[in-house]
Design goal:
This protein is of the alpha/beta class. Helices cover 37% and strands 12% of the residues. The strands form two sheets. Strands 1, 2, 3, 4, 5 and 6 form a six-stranded parallel β-sheet that branches. The structure holds zinc ion (ZN). Zinc ion binds next to loops.
């Protein structure tokens, strides 16, 4: 089995108080869940970025009432609520590590990550999907950095004090609004200084080019696909893919049907060939060194049948192998590109 390091999951949303389950469920094969340790072991998942996503009432109401024919901008999340919610989710990540009897660790640098992967210890990197928990004076950035934060998406698909995320209109270009605020530019510079990865997934196009102009680190979109194949604003245009390649960065394959399919529909019967063609397109455009996986495991009802949970990395690797990807190419897509980008960013 090919060991995989995945750039994006929402597993932390499953655990209380954000979700229904106690953290101990991470060690059993739970119900209504995409990622737990037994599933990771079965699929070859060796570790990944664990997202802190602020699932507040305003966002959830906007999601459930969302009408693609009449898209409205997402409401912003309340920063005070966001900071408290982030605290609980970060605590749960450390509770999982502490309860794991050495089976899982929160890693903070490249050497720890490599040591875990070589020893078969499940490697978890703390990531924020949206900077809502961080104040514009960046005090919380320093504190969360000390608490292990090593990757930060400026936004989810909503506005905040730093930038604007893309809405889910389809079809639509990712050019959906203004670029970074002054606070957003300061946040990117602070992340560069602290060696925190800046994640571009969910960011609109003007914000993307602002980060490209400001940041000295490889450009990374942890869980976004090719816009040429699926015209969701969540995906990356050819120009964006070129910029990612030119900085030595990467884009991670997102397996959710809405970001894969030509029709942009959330259809569970989406075939494996749709995942494969995005990988092939991005490899053709950027080269084999700039494509990884950021599957977006989280909510079972959103996942396609062919990639319903963390056991499905192995069949994806088999499908790529059948399309002619050799062992070195598969290793790069599965983990080595992510490891290189994290080494370059964190050093
Ligand atoms: Zn996301």
């Amino acid at each position: 089995m090919i060991p995989v390091f995945d750039g994006h999951n929402d597993a932390l949303l499953h655990y209380a108080p954000a979700g229904p389950a106690p953290i101990e469920e991470f060690f059993t094969r739970g119900e209504d869940v995409c990622l737990d340790l037994p599933r990771a072991r079965e699929g070859g998942l060796a570790g990944g970025l664990f997202a802190v996503f602020i699932k507040d009432d305003a966002t959830m109401a906007a999601l459930t009432s969302f009408d693609p024919a009449n898209p409205t901008a997402m409401p912003a999340a309340d920063p005070t609520y966001a900071c408290a919610a982030a605290m609980a989710m970060v605590a749960n990540l450390y509770r999982i590590a502490a309860a794991s009897n050495g089976q899982a660790e929160v890693v903070r640098d490249h050497a720890e990550l490599v040591r875990c992967l070589e020893a078969g210890v499940f490697a978890m990197v703390l990531h924020f999907e949206g900077a809502e928990p961080i104040d514009t004076d960046l005090h919380a950035l320093e504190v969360f950095y000390q608490a292990g934060l090593r990757s930060l998406g400026l936004v989810w698909s909503r506005p905040n004090a730093f930038a604007c995320g893309v809405p889910f209109d389809f079809p639509h270009s990712p050019d959906t609004g203004p670029g970074l605020t002054a606070a957003g530019e300061a946040l990117v510079r602070a992340c560069n200084r602290l060696r925190i990865l800046v994640d571009l997934s969910h960011l609109n196009e003007k914000g993307f080019w602002d980060v490209a102009r400001i940041s000295g680190a490889p450009l990374v979109a942890s869980h976004s696909n090719a816009w040429a194949l699926c015209k969701s604003p969540r995906n990356l245009t050819d120009r964006q893919l070129d910029a990612i390649r030119n900085t030595g960065g990467l884009a991670g394959l997102n397996v959710l049907p809405a970001f894969l399919r030509e029709d942009g529909k959330r259809v569970k019967a989406t075939p494996m060939s749709d995942l494969v063609r995005h990988i092939e397109y991005m490899v053709e455009r950027m080269g084999i060194d700039h494509v990884g996986i950021g599957a977006d495991l989280g909510v079972p009802s959103y996942m396609p049948d062919v990639f319903h949970d963390a056991t499905c990395y192995a069949p994806l690797m088999d499908a790529l192998s059948a399309r002619g990807f050799d062992a070195p190419a598969l290793a790069k897509i599965a983990r080595e590109n992510w490891l290189r980008v994290l080494r370059e960013t964190w050093r």
